[in-house]
Design goal:
Elements (H helix, E strand, L loop, with lengths): L2 H16 L6 H15 L12 H12 L8 H34 L10 H13 L2 H24 L5 H7 L25 H24 L6 H7 L8 H30 L1
Helix pairs in contact: 1-2, 2-3, 3-4, 3-10, 4-5, 4-6, 5-10, 6-8, 6-10
């Protein structure tokens, strides 16, 4: 049993069987730290990955009841693991449907194909967790990145490290930044279209910066800054929180449904 498995087995009983009361802050803090310190650092997208319920728990604690600003990079890292699970699950559904097709063309007396309704339901779930969910994931990543940058900008905090972390687009920077993309799981295997969307998101910040430099206002309080230069709609925290919950709920629901279908088919 590897260390990751031991860690998960240690965590899971209290989370799953005993449960944690919503007001049990000490319990939540213990689990949250355990996830970040003992589980996520040992997982990679190509090998071990924490269970979905562990990841979803940590993400929800990071964004509810309010978004933990300093933990946004951690939240995106956790969501990137969830996205890896989504991709693997989609591949597993493809395998199930292909195996069912083969079984129908070459019947095996020891195996039973899916019923018509089961096959339709799995096809629908495969469609529901496909490219649209990938786009939602990227929308969440880009939105939270811009939100973090804006909130730090309002407080007049140095932004260079944050900007290159979230927007490692070579055309935007004089120094080399291409290697940064490989340091953060939420940039894992970006397509060219996704890189373009990332650049468009970065440009939202730079357009705002140009406006501020052009106006050259006197020192503004955070409140005055927000009023004069409102947060971009793409970075609306309520919208991002809602999207994140929907992303997690849809994947969890699909996985549970498939498990139920396969359990029924086996019986």
């Amino acid at each position: 049993m590897n260390a990751l498995t031991r860690n998960i087995k240690t965590l899971s009983p209290r989370m799953v069987r005993e449960g944690i009361e919503s007001e049990d802050d000490k319990g939540h803090t213990t689990i949250y730290r355990f996830i970040h310190e003992c589980i996520v650092p040992k997982a990679t997208p190509d090998t071990d990955c924490p269970p979905l319920h562990v990841l979803a728990y940590a993400v929800r604690r990071n964004i509810c009841p309010t978004i933990l600003l300093d933990h946004i990079p951690d939240t995106l890292q956790l969501l990137a693991h969830v996205e890896c699970i989504r991709q693997r699950f989609a591949g597993r559904l493809d395998e199930i449907l292909e195996a069912d097709r083969s079984l129908r063309s070459k019947p095996d007396p020891m195996s039973i194909p899916l019923s018509g309704d089961e096959r339709i339901e799995i096809k629908q779930m495969r469609s529901s967790i496909g490219k649209k969910m990938r786009r939602t994931f990227r929308e969440i990543v880009n939105g939270f990145s811009l939100y973090h940058v804006y909130e730090r900008w309002v407080l007049d905090v140095e932004l260079d490290a944050l900007l290159t972390k979230y927007f490692p687009i070579p055309s935007l920077w004089q120094e080399p930044v291409s290697g940064i993309e490989h340091q953060h799981l939420f940039h894992y295997k970006l397509t060219e279209d996704e890189r373009e969307d990332l650049e468009v998101t970065a440009q939202v910040y730079f357009d705002m910066l140009d406006k501020v430099l052009e106006d050259n206002p006197p020192d503004l309080s955070p409140k005055d800054f927000r009023e004069k230069y409102p947060r971009p709609e793409q970075a609306d925290p309520e919208r991002l929180t809602k999207l994140t919950h929907e992303f997690l709920d849809r994947l969890e629901s699909a996985i549970h449904k498939v498990k139920d279908i396969l359990a029924t088919a086996e019986n």
